[in-house]
Amino acid sequence: TAALASSLLAALAIAEQIRQERLGRKKAQDELRSTYEAIPIGLFSLDEQGRIVQANPAYKKMLGRNAAESAHWGGGFEADAWVRLKALVNTSSGEELELKGYGSGEGRQRNFLVKATREKGRIEGSLQDITMRVEANAKLRFLVDHDPLTGIFNRRGIEKAFDAANLSLVDGKAMALAYL
After folding, report:
1. Diameter of the chain by CA atoms?
2. 179 CB-contact burial (10 Å; exposed 0-12 / middle 13-18 / buried 19+)
């Protein structure tokens, strides 16, 4: 009787430990699922042909629902996007890829940053909308050579334009410069 009771208690302890481990795994899965759905970076999984297997809500929001449900990943991006993504995952150098595409129903071109890797026969990747960063950089590049108020060349811009014109001159040709 003592051996039977001891075996029964051991079995109950093991069952409780298994139950606690199962609850811990379920809690971890729920936390991962919640993070996957709430993260502001678009996450996607593709098969080897480029069909979208899975995408999180941020990805669908960035590209619009139709783009996320399209048969092929390249839909909504520039023409060579799929070829460039395959080249990226085949190099496995951890580089990033900048693509142009059209965002969720806005009709204007957006800029995206893609990171991807090949894992277990799938392409796993992330997508970030970097349009604001690209536009800010373009504005800064413009302000390097232009007056912020009038938009005309500043001294540096004039010097660069003069140097470019001077380089394009053929020997013996005259050039004039007028600036008001």
Report:
1. 116
2. exposed
**What is the phi/psi pair of residue 126, to 5°?**
-130, 155
Provide the residue-wise pLDDT of the chain in tens; the chain has 180 residues: 888 889 999 999 999 999 999 999 998 888 877 777 778 888 899 998 888 888 888 888 888 755 545 567 777 788 888 889 988 888 866 688 999 887 665 667 889 999 999 888 899 999 999 999 999 999 999 999 999 999 999 999 999 988 888 888 877 788 887 877
Asked if residues 142 and 158 have their Cβ atoms less than 8 Å apart, the reply is no
Q: Which residues pair with 126 in a beta bridge?
A: 43, 115
CA torsion through residues 21, 26, 29, 31, sign:
negative
Phi, psi of 53 (to 5 degrees): -90, -40
> CA 91, CA 85: separation in Å to the nearest integer?
10
The 8-class DSSP code of residue 80 comes to T
Q: Is the pTM of this model over 0.70?
A: no
Contact 158, 179 (CB under 8 A): yes
